[in-house]
From TrEMBL:
GO molecular function, one term: nucleic acid binding
Organism of provenance: Gibberella zeae
Gene3D superfamilies in the record: Ribonuclease H-like superfamily/Ribonuclease H
Domain of life of the organism encoding this protein: Eukaryota
Spans through the membrane: none
Protein known as: Uncharacterized protein
Length: 190
């Protein structure tokens, strides 16, 4: 699970076409708009739970999301009983550790600065690429309600066929429970 930010710059074209010998140019006014966050829990079957909202993710928002998510999780070692997270400060609170412990859910933290070991990072890259490709088709919705556009992209992009590959690419499987070498909150993937 993780969070990722998006704003309307996701739809900007980075490449263009022009006749041979002429550099393509695009002229546009740029104004940084409101930023949205996508906070998602991702399983090998796709998105388990997701929120899209304006602003940034603070501890209160993250704790509230974890409370909601834990109602949908199983107890370790059942399927969907492990939360894989990076080491962001808001992910490492004592309150979250205690909530997970009470719910019987195991927390596993990726090694610092290794987004490749968290399958949701690949999902977010795919999500942003999808949002960019579909941009022109949904320009009216984007101008009317950008948050609704992001939600529609999340719904379309959280599919099982993609998520299984993202977990494989991150080197994660849940076929066999991993040995529990560490009992405290600093379990890490390497």
């Amino acid at each position: 699970m993780d969070e990722s930010g998006m704003d309307k710059t996701v739809g900007l074209r980075r490449k263009g076409w022009a006749p041979k010998g002429i550099t393509p140019r695009q002229t546009a006014t740029f104004q940084r708009e409101e930023r949205y966050q996508v906070l998602s829990a991702y399983t090998q079957r796709g998105i388990k739970l997701s929120r899209v909202y304006r602003g940034s993710t603070d501890t209160e928002t993250f704790v509230d999301f974890i409370k909601q998510l834990l109602r949908h999780c199983n107890r370790w070692p059942e399927p969907e009983s492990v939360l894989v997270m990076d080491n962001a400060t808001i992910h490492c609170s004592k309150e979250i550790e205690e909530m997970c412990e009470r719910a019987g859910v195991k927390q596993v933290f990726t090694a610092p600065y290794t987004p490749i070991t968290n399958p949701i990072e690949e999902h977010f890259a795919e999500l942003k690429a999808y949002a960019k490709v579909r941009w022109d088709e949904h320009i009216d919705l984007i101008h009317r309600d950008f948050g609704a556009y992001i939600k529609s992209c999340v719904a379309a992009g959280g599919r099982q066929d993609s998520s299984e590959g993202h977990f494989r690419n991150a080197g994660l499987t849940v076929e066999h429970p991993p040995s529990s070498g560490c009992a405290d909150n600093d379990d890490q993937l390497s």
